[in-house]
Design a protein that fits this description.
The protein is of the alpha/beta class. It has two domains: 111 residues, no CATH class; 219 residues, Class I glutamine amidotransferase (GATase) domain (Rossmann fold, 3-Layer(aba) Sandwich), CATH 3.40.50. Helix content is 26%, strand content 21%. The chain is built from eleven helices and 16 strands. Strands 7, 8, 9, 10, 11, 14, 15 and 16 form an eight-stranded mixed sheet that branches. Strands 1-5-6-3 form a four-stranded mixed sheet. A two-stranded antiparallel sheet has the order 2-4. Helix 1 packs antiparallel against helix 3. The N terminus is likely disordered.
């Protein structure tokens, strides 16, 4: 949530008045260069917010660029303990955000999705793990329709291509509009949910600079992780220094195959035509209490792989068939749609 002091505007004055007297419980600096707040140490005893309003910009994850343009160097993340806030003043705050010219860059901005939260609050994030990008097919619509809204903005992070994609021309053959074989499969599928093509934004590994990539991620509320090579996807995420911004992401994460696997802290790779050996790899680390077996077809190799993976740390393994998927809510609860099996010591193939 990005709030800019505009004292010439009546809504801005009301916003400043609303904040006066509130106390910051926690401040997290977000300078690109890692600088400190100029000579100030607001973390000790709380800090009166009005003293920070002079030429300051306050942001929360994701919505920083969404509402008022790009954050300036020197912006800070502001987290207030909402239990101390007066409800009538909160209403003034919401009115300010809904009144022009405050919301100038995002018609879809919903203040209810970007409330100031307690200082120890974790990012609010939903996860969808599947095998296929065909989210507009009948078998999965009912499970996903409550998570995808017509006003959403989608960021497609297509970093999962194999090593034979070596340059922009190769990348375009896979993902470029009007040319790429995977473009429509990852764009048109959102149309059933009411989104338009202009709401689906692709990160280009070969042409976008790192700041552009970060902005695309932060400005979305749906992050799409494509299928392909999970280990290479993680390698490129680290190369582009995107892991931190991904870890802090708020919204809905949808991952297909490799994009499902890297949502985990650790994931196993069962041997197939692309990976000749069983392997363990590190993911982004959003989820850590289970493992997945993607493209589950009840094969002997997959059953052996799940037994080997389960023996490592006894985490349940969700075996997701082609028409199957799972949803992990912000509180960690899980729901399933289509064909999914839970592999543990009670599974009939355990120990086989």
């Amino acid at each position: 949530m990005k709030l800019v002091t505009r004292y010439s505007n009546p809504q801005a004055k009301a916003l400043v008045n609303w904040f006066r007297g509130q106390t910051i419980q926690k401040i997290e600096c977000s300078f690109d260069q890692g600088n400190q707040t100029e000579g100030e140490n607001p973390l000790q005893n709380g800090f009166p917010i009005e003293t920070l309003f002079q030429n300051r910009i306050f942001t929360l994850p994701n919505n920083a660029n969404l509402v008022f343009g790009k954050p300036q160097e020197g912006s800070i993340d502001l987290v207030i303990d909402r239990k101390d806030l007066d409800s009538k003043k909160w209403q003034i705050f919401e009115n300010c955000l809904n009144a022009a010219p405050w919301v100038i860059a995002a018609k879809h901005f919903d203040p209810a999705k970007a409330l100031l939260r307690p200082a120890d609050a974790q990012p609010v994030r939903w996860h969808v793990l599947m095998n296929t990008s065909m989210i507009d097919e009948k078998w999965c619509r009912s499970a996903l329709k409550g998570l995808i809204q017509p006003e959403d903005e989608v960021c497609v992070l297509a970093f999962s291509f194999f090593d034979d994609t070596k340059n922009l021309a190769d990348w375009n053959k896979q993902y470029q509009k009007g040319q790429g074989i995977w473009y429509r499969a990852n764009t048109d599928v959102f149309f059933w949910y009411g989104l338009k093509e202009k709401q689906v934004h692709w990160v280009n590994y070969f042409t976008d600079d790192i700041n552009t990539m970060k902005d695309a991620i932060r400005n979305s509320n749906i992050l799409l992780l494509t299928g392909g090579a999970p280990d290479l996807m993680m390698k490129r995420i680290k190369e582009k220094k995107l892991k931190k911004v991904l870890k802090e992401y708020e919204g809905l994460v949808i991952g297909y195959s490799a994009g499902a696997m890297i949502q985990l802290d650790d994931y196993h790779i069962t041997p197939d035509e692309d990976y000749p050996r069983f392997d363990w790899q590190k993911g982004i680390g959003w989820l850590n209490d289970f493992d997945v077996e993607v493209h589950y077809a009840h094969s002997r190799i997959q059953k052996e792989g799940m037994n080997r993976a389960y023996a490592k740390d006894q985490k349940p393994i969700y075996a997701i068939e082609e028409q199957g998927g799972m949803i992990v809510s912000p509180d960690g609860s899980k729901s399933f749609f289509g064909k999914v099996e839970c592999f543990d010591e009670n599974h009939p193939d355990y120990g086989v």
